[in-house]
Amino acid sequence: MIIVCEFITPSGLERLQQGGLEVFYDPNLWKDRAALKAKLANATALVVRNQTLVNADLLAAAPNLKVVGRLGVGLDNIVQPDLKTFGVQLYFARGINANAVAEYVLAAMLHLARNLAGGAAHVAGGGWNRAAFGGFELAGKTLGLVGLGEVGLRVAKRARAFGMNVVAADPMRLPWESAVEDLEIRLLSTAEVLRSAQFLSLHAPLTPETRELIRAETLATMPKGSYLINTARGELVSQADLVSALRSGHLAGAVLDVVDPEPLPAEHVLRGVDNLWITPHVAGLTAEAQEAVGLRVAEGVLNLLGVA
């Protein structure tokens, strides 16, 4: 039996059902851990998104489990050493939503540069102040990327098409790699990227080294009037320090698709900051990306079960 305890697209569910095994689908099952454990007693595969904590406690209730499929790219809710201990394989959709996230970053930069929504609201309210909403061009500005993986490279490609200069920090990249050379990306240290970037976009994983990478002392090194975009993990940023930098005017604005915690509580330091825009972790949730995630994870789970 394959258990799917969070949302999956209809096409992904249909693909799982084509494998010939019984598929139990309840997108709300993750909310009742005791019921989930009971269902897992006879399961050979479990498919989750980001709400289900897959750890030793859950795996102990699934003696026949062979595969966990993760509908997405982040693995914060998957305790991988526990999977290894229980002999369970993991399949996730690495890089599947990279285009969606890259387009979000470009949309965020255009929003910060041109403020279309603000201009439209101004006109809707009876205004016609052209000087207030002229904005500025992305061409010639410097985009700094912390992390140059699947998403970072796609952001760089789109930014270069807009005529931006791109600098990046990633310990896994080398300056003579074809992707780096072809896009004319300058590889620098993280400190140098922060000092150079008029727009800084975060694409690094959450590790002990990157936790609160963006904090008071690093924010102070960024150019006055620069912008921050975070689509990676909320914990990469000291949120109180970011608010201070925004309110002081050192940073001109920020767009966050990830925060800590999620969902954002009603009473939170990030609330009520005029030059801060927060979206509910949707950068990778385009219709196209979700369709691809469902199909790829379904295929991967069936392949690992040997029934594809």
From TrEMBL:
UniProt keyword annotation of tRNA processing present: no
Question: What is the protein's given name?
Answer: 3-phosphoglycerate dehydrogenase
Which InterPro entries does UniProt cross-reference here? Answer: D-2-hydroxyacid_DH, D-isomer_2_OHA_DH_cat_dom, D-isomer_DH_NAD-bd, NAD(P)-bd_dom_sf
Gene3D superfamilies given in the database record: NAD(P)-binding Rossmann-like Domain
Q: Which GO terms describe its molecular function?
A: (S)-2-hydroxyglutarate dehydrogenase activity; NAD binding; phosphoglycerate dehydrogenase activity
Record-level GO BP terms = L-serine biosynthetic process
Q: Which residues form the D-isomer specific 2-hydroxyacid dehydrogenase catalytic domain?
A: 3-304
Keyword field: NAD, Oxidoreductase
| Annotated ranges, domain D-isomer specific 2-hydroxyacid dehydrogenase NAD-binding | 106-283
Q: Transmembrane ranges?
A: none
Q: Which family does it belong to?
A: Belongs to the D-isomer specific 2-hydroxyacid dehydrogenase family.
Q: Report the Pfam families cross-referenced here.
A: 2-Hacid_dh, 2-Hacid_dh_C
Species of provenance: Meiothermus hypogaeus NBRC 106114
Q: Is Ligase tagged as a keyword? A: no
